[in-house]
Protein backbone atom coordinates (compact mmCIF):
# COMPACT_ATOMS: atom_id res chain seq x y z
CA UNK A 1 0.00 0.00 0.00
CA UNK A 2 2.84 2.36 0.88
CA UNK A 3 4.52 1.62 -2.47
CA UNK A 4 1.24 2.33 -4.27
CA UNK A 5 0.89 5.72 -2.57
CA UNK A 6 4.47 6.64 -3.38
CA UNK A 7 4.01 5.63 -7.03
CA UNK A 8 0.79 7.64 -7.26
CA UNK A 9 2.48 10.70 -5.78
CA UNK A 10 5.35 10.45 -8.24
CA UNK A 11 2.93 10.09 -11.15
CA UNK A 12 0.96 13.15 -10.09
CA UNK A 13 4.19 15.07 -9.70
CA UNK A 14 5.10 14.31 -13.30
CA UNK A 15 1.65 15.07 -14.67
CA UNK A 16 1.11 18.37 -12.83
CA UNK A 17 3.78 20.34 -14.74
CA UNK A 18 2.29 19.07 -18.00
CA UNK A 19 -1.12 20.41 -17.03
CA UNK A 20 0.48 23.72 -16.06
CA UNK A 21 1.93 24.08 -19.58
CA UNK A 22 -1.34 23.55 -21.45
CA UNK A 23 -2.44 26.69 -23.30
CA UNK A 24 -6.11 27.50 -23.53
CA UNK A 25 -7.37 27.74 -27.10
CA UNK A 26 -9.13 31.05 -27.78
CA UNK A 27 -12.73 31.00 -28.87
CA UNK A 28 -13.20 30.90 -32.64
CA UNK A 29 -13.34 34.44 -33.99
CA UNK A 30 -11.74 35.93 -30.88
CA UNK A 31 -8.74 38.20 -31.49
CA UNK A 32 -6.10 38.04 -28.78
CA UNK A 33 -3.03 40.16 -28.24
CA UNK A 34 -4.28 43.04 -30.42
CA UNK A 35 -2.00 45.99 -29.83
CA UNK A 36 -3.08 48.83 -32.14
CA UNK A 37 -0.42 51.21 -33.42
CA UNK A 38 -0.89 54.86 -34.25
CA UNK A 39 -1.94 54.58 -37.89
CA UNK A 40 -2.42 57.27 -40.52
CA UNK A 41 -3.51 57.44 -44.13
CA UNK A 42 -3.72 60.08 -46.81
CA UNK A 43 -5.15 60.14 -50.32
CA UNK A 44 -4.34 62.17 -53.42
CA UNK A 45 -6.51 62.98 -56.43
CA UNK A 46 -5.79 64.43 -59.85
CA UNK A 47 -2.00 64.26 -59.60
CA UNK A 48 -0.52 64.99 -63.05
CA UNK A 49 3.05 63.60 -63.14
CA UNK A 50 5.74 65.48 -65.06
CA UNK A 51 7.26 64.36 -68.34
CA UNK A 52 10.09 61.85 -67.82
CA UNK A 53 8.87 61.39 -64.26
CA UNK A 54 11.20 60.01 -61.60
CA UNK A 55 10.08 60.25 -57.96
CA UNK A 56 6.38 61.07 -58.05
CA UNK A 57 5.21 60.31 -54.53
CA UNK A 58 7.37 60.24 -51.36
CA UNK A 59 7.06 59.81 -47.62
CA UNK A 60 9.93 61.10 -45.47
CA UNK A 61 11.14 60.01 -42.04
CA UNK A 62 9.98 61.57 -38.80
CA UNK A 63 12.32 63.24 -36.33
CA UNK A 64 10.55 61.65 -33.36
CA UNK A 65 8.91 58.41 -34.57
CA UNK A 66 9.80 55.26 -36.50
CA UNK A 67 7.67 55.22 -39.66
CA UNK A 68 6.54 51.94 -41.19
CA UNK A 69 4.77 52.01 -44.56
CA UNK A 70 1.94 49.47 -44.80
CA UNK A 71 0.33 50.21 -48.16
CA UNK A 72 0.61 52.36 -51.28
CA UNK A 73 -2.11 52.45 -53.93
CA UNK A 74 -1.80 54.29 -57.24
CA UNK A 75 -3.73 54.34 -60.51
CA UNK A 76 -5.14 56.74 -63.07
CA UNK A 77 -6.54 57.51 -66.48
CA UNK A 78 -5.42 59.55 -69.47
CA UNK A 79 -3.47 58.36 -72.50
CA UNK A 80 -3.43 54.57 -72.27
CA UNK A 81 0.00 53.23 -71.32
CA UNK A 82 1.59 50.51 -69.25
CA UNK A 83 4.77 51.46 -67.43
CA UNK A 84 7.03 49.88 -64.81
CA UNK A 85 7.27 51.66 -61.47
CA UNK A 86 9.43 51.00 -58.42
CA UNK A 87 9.27 51.69 -54.71
CA UNK A 88 12.68 52.82 -53.47
CA UNK A 89 14.16 53.90 -50.15
CA UNK A 90 16.61 56.76 -50.33
CA UNK A 91 19.12 57.79 -47.68
CA UNK A 92 18.75 61.49 -48.54
CA UNK A 93 15.73 63.65 -49.30
CA UNK A 94 14.97 64.87 -52.81
CA UNK A 95 15.28 68.60 -53.40
CA UNK A 96 13.72 71.07 -55.82
CA UNK A 97 10.94 70.03 -58.16
CA UNK A 98 7.41 71.38 -58.09
CA UNK A 99 5.23 70.05 -55.31
CA UNK A 100 1.63 69.14 -56.03
CA UNK A 101 -1.05 71.39 -54.61
CA UNK A 102 -4.54 70.94 -53.15
CA UNK A 103 -5.86 67.38 -53.42
CA UNK A 104 -2.99 66.25 -55.68
CA UNK A 105 -0.65 66.46 -52.69
CA UNK A 106 -1.11 63.82 -49.96
CA UNK A 107 1.08 65.96 -47.70
CA UNK A 108 -1.65 68.54 -47.13
CA UNK A 109 -2.31 68.12 -43.40
CA UNK A 110 -6.07 68.28 -43.79
CA UNK A 111 -5.88 65.18 -45.98
CA UNK A 112 -3.93 63.12 -43.43
CA UNK A 113 -6.32 61.08 -41.31
CA UNK A 114 -5.77 59.28 -38.05
CA UNK A 115 -7.27 55.81 -38.46
CA UNK A 116 -8.67 55.82 -34.90
CA UNK A 117 -9.73 59.23 -33.64
CA UNK A 118 -10.75 57.71 -30.32
CA UNK A 119 -7.22 56.62 -29.50
CA UNK A 120 -5.51 59.30 -27.46
CA UNK A 121 -2.07 58.36 -28.77
CA UNK A 122 -3.05 59.28 -32.31
CA UNK A 123 -1.83 62.85 -32.32
CA UNK A 124 -0.88 64.67 -35.53
CA UNK A 125 1.24 62.66 -37.96
CA UNK A 126 4.96 63.47 -37.98
CA UNK A 127 5.96 61.83 -41.28
CA UNK A 128 6.15 64.21 -44.27
CA UNK A 129 4.42 63.36 -47.56
CA UNK A 130 4.91 65.01 -50.92
CA UNK A 131 3.97 64.58 -54.58
CA UNK A 132 5.68 66.15 -57.58
CA UNK A 133 4.34 67.74 -60.76
CA UNK A 134 7.86 68.70 -61.90
CA UNK A 135 10.86 66.40 -61.55
CA UNK A 136 12.78 66.82 -58.27
CA UNK A 137 16.55 66.57 -57.90
CA UNK A 138 17.42 63.14 -56.58
CA UNK A 139 20.32 63.40 -54.13
CA UNK A 140 20.63 59.68 -53.39
CA UNK A 141 21.27 57.97 -56.73
CA UNK A 142 21.88 54.50 -55.22
CA UNK A 143 18.60 53.65 -53.48
CA UNK A 144 17.37 50.39 -52.00
CA UNK A 145 14.75 48.88 -54.32
CA UNK A 146 11.90 47.64 -52.14
CA UNK A 147 9.28 46.62 -54.70
CA UNK A 148 8.19 47.00 -58.30
CA UNK A 149 5.06 46.59 -60.38
CA UNK A 150 3.38 47.67 -63.61
CA UNK A 151 1.12 50.71 -63.62
CA UNK A 152 -1.63 50.47 -66.19
CA UNK A 153 -3.16 53.81 -67.19
CA UNK A 154 -6.41 53.47 -69.09
CA UNK A 155 -7.82 55.91 -71.62
CA UNK A 156 -10.29 58.38 -70.15
CA UNK A 157 -12.86 57.27 -72.74
CA UNK A 158 -12.83 53.68 -71.48
CA UNK A 159 -15.93 52.81 -69.50
CA UNK A 160 -14.34 50.06 -67.40
CA UNK A 161 -12.93 50.75 -63.92
CA UNK A 162 -9.37 52.03 -63.71
CA UNK A 163 -7.00 49.29 -62.47
CA UNK A 164 -5.10 50.23 -59.34
CA UNK A 165 -1.53 49.18 -58.61
CA UNK A 166 -1.25 48.12 -54.97
CA UNK A 167 1.86 47.68 -52.87
CA UNK A 168 0.55 45.97 -49.75
CA UNK A 169 3.02 45.05 -46.99
CA UNK A 170 0.50 44.96 -44.14
CA UNK A 171 0.07 41.18 -44.33
CA UNK A 172 3.83 40.78 -43.82
CA UNK A 173 3.34 41.78 -40.19
CA UNK A 174 1.19 38.68 -39.61
CA UNK A 175 4.15 36.57 -40.70
CA UNK A 176 6.59 38.52 -38.52
CA UNK A 177 8.20 40.02 -41.62
CA UNK A 178 9.49 43.57 -41.59
CA UNK A 179 7.69 46.22 -43.63
CA UNK A 180 9.42 49.15 -45.38
CA UNK A 181 10.69 51.35 -42.56
CA UNK A 182 12.08 54.86 -42.15
CA UNK A 183 14.43 55.29 -39.22
CA UNK A 184 13.56 57.89 -36.59
CA UNK A 185 15.56 61.08 -36.94
CA UNK A 186 17.01 60.15 -40.34
CA UNK A 187 16.81 61.84 -43.74
CA UNK A 188 15.44 58.69 -45.36
CA UNK A 189 12.44 58.68 -47.64
CA UNK A 190 10.44 56.06 -49.51
CA UNK A 191 9.33 57.04 -53.01
CA UNK A 192 7.29 55.72 -55.90
CA UNK A 193 9.58 56.17 -58.91
CA UNK A 194 8.49 56.14 -62.56
CA UNK A 195 11.98 55.50 -63.97
CA UNK A 196 12.06 58.61 -66.19
CA UNK A 197 8.98 57.41 -68.06
CA UNK A 198 6.38 59.83 -69.40
CA UNK A 199 2.64 59.41 -69.02
CA UNK A 200 -0.13 61.88 -69.74
CA UNK A 201 -2.51 60.97 -66.98
CA UNK A 202 -4.33 62.02 -63.84
CA UNK A 203 -3.40 59.84 -60.89
CA UNK A 204 -5.29 58.93 -57.74
CA UNK A 205 -4.02 56.92 -54.83
CA UNK A 206 -3.47 56.43 -51.14
CA UNK A 207 -0.74 55.69 -48.60
CA UNK A 208 -1.05 54.13 -45.13
CA UNK A 209 1.65 54.10 -42.46
CA UNK A 210 2.23 53.70 -38.73
CA UNK A 211 4.30 55.78 -36.34
CA UNK A 212 5.89 54.24 -33.26
Mean pLDDT comes to 84
> How many separate helices?
2
Question: Biggest β-sheet: count, sense, barrel?
Answer: 12 strands, mixed
The helical percent reads: 10-25%
CA-atom Rg in angstroms: 25 Å
- Regions with pLDDT < 50 over 5+ consecutive residues? 8-12, 14-23
| Tally of structural domains | 1
**Structural shape:** globular
Summing up helix and strand content along with how strands pair, one would put the structural category as mainly beta
The SSE string, one letter per element, is HEEEEEEEEEHEEE
Give the percentage of residues in beta strands.
35-45%
* Overall number of strands: 12
Quote the distance from N terminus to C terminus: 64 Å
Quickly list its features.
single chain, 212 residues, mainly beta, twelve-stranded mixed sheet, 2 helices, 43% strand
Describe this structure as you would to a colleague.
With 212 residues, the protein is mostly beta strands. It has one domain (38-211). It has 2 helices and 12 strands. It has helices spanning 2-20, 170-174, and strands spanning 38-47, 53-60, 67-78, 81-90, 98-99, 112-114, 128-134, 144-155, 164-168, 181-182, 189-197, 201-211. Strands 1, 2, 3, 4, 5, 6, 7, 8, 9, 10, 11 and 12 form a 12-stranded mixed beta sheet that branches. The radius of gyration is 25 Å and the shape is globular. Mean pLDDT is 84; it is low at 8-12 and 14-23.
SSE order and pairing:
Blueprint: H1 2-20, E1 38-47, E2 53-60, E3 67-78, E4 81-90, E5 98-99, E6 112-114, E7 128-134, E8 144-155, E9 164-168, H2 170-174, E10 181-182, E11 189-197, E12 201-211
Parallel strand pairs: 3-8
Antiparallel strand pairs: 1-6, 1-12, 2-7, 2-11, 3-9, 3-10, 3-12, 4-8, 4-11, 5-7
Amino acid sequence: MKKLLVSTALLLGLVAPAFAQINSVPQVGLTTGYLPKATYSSAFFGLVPPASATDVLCIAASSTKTVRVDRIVIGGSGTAVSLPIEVVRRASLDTGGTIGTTTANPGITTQIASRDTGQALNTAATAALVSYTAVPTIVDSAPVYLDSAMLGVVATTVGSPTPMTIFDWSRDIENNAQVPTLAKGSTQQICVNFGATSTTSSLNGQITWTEE
